[in-house]
Design a protein that fits this description.
Bound molecules: 4'-deoxy-4'-aminopyridoxal-5'-phosphate
Radius of gyration: 22 Å
Family: Belongs to the class-III pyridoxal-phosphate-dependent aminotransferase family.
Strand order of the largest sheet: 4-10-9-8-7-5-6
CATH class of the largest domain: Alpha Beta
Largest sheet: 7 strands, mixed
Structural class: alpha/beta
Pfam families: Aminotran_3 (PF00202)
CATH topology of the largest domain: Aspartate Aminotransferase, domain 2
Helix content: 25-40%
Shape: globular
Protein name: Beta-alanine--pyruvate transaminase
Number of helices: 16
Organism: Filomicrobium insigne
Number of domains: 2
Oligomer: single chain
CATH superfamily of the largest domain: Type I PLP-dependent aspartate aminotransferase-like (Major domain)
Number of strands: 15
Keywords: Pyridoxal phosphate
Amino acid sequence: MAEHLKNEPSDLAAYWMPFTANRAFQRRPRMVVSAKGMHYTTSDGRQVIDATSGLYCVNAGHGREEIAAAIKEVAYRLDYAPAFQFGHPQAFELANRLTALAPAGLDHVFFSNSGSEAVDTAMKIALAYHRQRGEGQRTRFIGRERGYHGVGFGGLSVGGVPANRRDFGTLLPGIDHLRCTYDREHQSFAIGEPEWGRELADELEQLVALHGASNIAAVVVEPIAGSTGCLPPPKGYLERLREITKRHGILLIFDEVITAFGRTGYGFASERYGLTPDIIAFAKGVTNGAVPFAGTLVSGDIHAALMTGPEHAPEFFHGYTYSGHPLATAAAMATLDIYRDEALFERASTLEEVFADVMMEMQSMPIVLDIRPIGLMCGIDIEPSARGPGVRGYELLQRAFHDHDLYVRVINDTMIVAPSLIATIDELTDIRDRALGALKSLS
Ligand code: PMP
């Protein structure tokens, strides 16, 4: 056995794990020590297939040597560059590449380190933009039920996950939520987008009428709600949101933290839907998960409005010590090279149909209540356990990992499959078979 595999931690109590049932985890810990391609190796030496690209970030597969080499080179040459009032060339080069990949018109990008920071940055840019244009009363935001926008106070406030908000008081004032677009009764086992989009989006008009357009800063949505269950937008929904926001001078912010970098077969899901929001938040796939990194793309109009004021003062009082960190920009450049050279976005597009078919075969299990594939992402709802919502899901995760050598993200009673864009058809069927095996053991 390799030396590092023997190094089990002496005690598990000090590390407080995020979004984890810590006490249960400590009784039955699961550890990974290495990763390659579509697989993790566990500390007890097993190969576990990674059905969720880590946490939707390892879009080019694990252990990419080109990315590791780029990180190593820069770590020796330029370990850190001050993020403020100083620059390093690769950050500018990366900004050029990302804006070239983004929908036309989004030609500036602000760097941060996580999806949460990218969303909170987007919200702060929206507020500053309106204020700069003499509309400082535009402070309200509109999110959506079952939207997930990270854990900063901005993203948490526009997010619509009750459990995430419950313990933290009133959060930001002046936030409303559009209704969730998912409706199992009319949507079960349907591939693609359901039909009822425009009417649902028209609810935005009711909120505009209630508060007055001139008080609303922005609408924040994921084009496809990802981590709360993979909920494809109904037809016409996003288009209608775009029309209504534009008409009222409200900014439209797309949170593409999961959907960017090939997840739907495009650089950004905005492109799939033929839409240009005013702001896009991205993270995860930009570095293939190898270094924490994120960004907020903004339109030329927004940027121009903020590039005002005294020339020798910062135009926007916001930033992070690690914005544009050299290790992150190196990892991102190498990752974008891989996406381009291996045509991975196109590959995702080509795989979409067969992925949907393979996932849909899980209908054979009576406890599977719905399956929603879109792009290379799929939500699979499992009947809640008699012992309460979420219980079976949690157990499923444990068993899937331990007994069936499958890593899959499970939230409440939904499992989310989102494989790397390098997955082969055999690996997709392997994921399905392992998931079915795990479900059978619970039925
Ligand atoms: N937005 C979306 C849509 C996400 O899926 C996530 C993370 N899953 C975030 C924001 C937050 O990203 P992070 O965990 O990097 O802060």
